[in-house]
Amino acid sequence: MQIVAWNNETNHIVQTSILRITPHNVCRWISMFVTAPILPNPDRIMISVGNKLIEIPFREPVLQRHEVVTCIAPLFGNEQWQQALFAAHVYRKFGTHMHLYIRSMVSPVYELMRVYEKEGYLTIQPWLRLILLTIPELQFNPNVNVEFRNQAAAQTDCLLQYKVSLLKRAHHFARRLWFTAQS
């Protein structure tokens, strides 16, 4: 596999291999892992599969500091919206930032969650819905065949988004422990 990256100065092509990280054969779609050095400050990243380039969407990490972040996978936020609504209030009470992935949601609940998002204690992020162009969804629905119904993918995505914020907090906490131990 090749990874192609662009920044505002140049582009770079890297040859790398795919590593299967799923230890079972239960799910029809599984997690794969690819690691490779790319350009600093990339504008676009694509993988080359056969003769096609497929763009890999990416975001900058969240820099705003949060004491605690709770990540709600799309499975639970979409199907159990009453619990997600209740959780938003509980998490706010205890100072936890809630990151909620959604595929779809009842409109009044979504509008209420948007109010919470504007107040800053909740983040709503749309979750991808896979659509295959060559196979009818009634024949094969990739969204229900993805490993653990996207729970692991959403939790990993959330951790990667907030790692800078949380690592700053962990580093500060570790320094306080070290100074306390030295006293």
Automatic annotation (TrEMBL):
It is a single-pass membrane protein. It holds the Pfam family Glyco_transf_92. GO terms for molecular function: glycosyltransferase activity. Transmembrane segments: none annotated. Its EC number is 2.4.1.-. InterPro entries: Glyco_transf_92, GTase_92. Keywords: Glycosyltransferase, Membrane, Transferase, Transmembrane, Transmembrane helix. This is Glycosyltransferase family 92 protein. One of its GO terms (cellular component) is membrane. It is found in: Membrane. Belongs to the glycosyltransferase 92 family.
